[in-house]
Amino acid sequence: MGTKKVRIFVGGQAFYISQEKLLHGPPSKLKQLVKSGDVDVERPADMFAAILAYYQTGELHMPMASCPAAFIQEMEFWDIGQDRMTQCCANRLIELFNI
Ligand SMILES: [Zn+2]
């Protein structure tokens, strides 16, 4: 039995993930959008890779090359709380913002 893939367009780039992984993953706007059909959003594709990896691995890390403030905005767009970030990257945020 093959795994059904979901195609997601972000910033004109196509991303694929197994439907099972996505639907069993944590709640987010991505999950909501996929339920209502094709996803095609104008957001930065490089940062979306980290959001997708969250569903692939269960861990949310901030891309090394990303501006943390920009990544926080992406998390807000996708309805993913900052508390879901893994400890290593949460520590990076704390260091950077002193929060
Ligand atoms: Zn990390």
Description:
This protein starts with a strand and ends with a helix. The longest helix is centred in the middle third of the chain and has 13 residues, at 45-57. The radius of gyration is 14 Å and the shape is globular. It is 47% helix and 15% strand. The chain is built from five helices and three strands; from the N terminus they run E-E-H-H-E-H-H-H. Bound molecules: zinc ion.
What's the domain count?
1
What's the CATH first level? Alpha Beta
Name the structural class: alpha+beta
Write down the secondary-structure element order. EEHHEHHH
> Given the C-alpha coordinates, what overall shape results?
globular
CATH architecture, by name, is: 2-Layer Sandwich
Q: What are its keywords?
A:
3-stranded mixed sheet, about 100 residues, alpha+beta, binds zinc ion, about 45% helix, about 15% strand
Short précis:
The protein is an alpha+beta fold and 99 residues long. It has helices spanning 19-24, 29-35, 45-57, 68-77, 87-97, and strands spanning 5-10, 13-18, 39-41.
List strands and helices in order, with pairings:
Layout: E1 5-10, E2 13-18, H1 19-24, H2 29-35, E3 39-41, H3 45-57, H4 68-77, H5 87-97
Parallel strand pairs: 1-3
Antiparallel strand pairs: 1-2
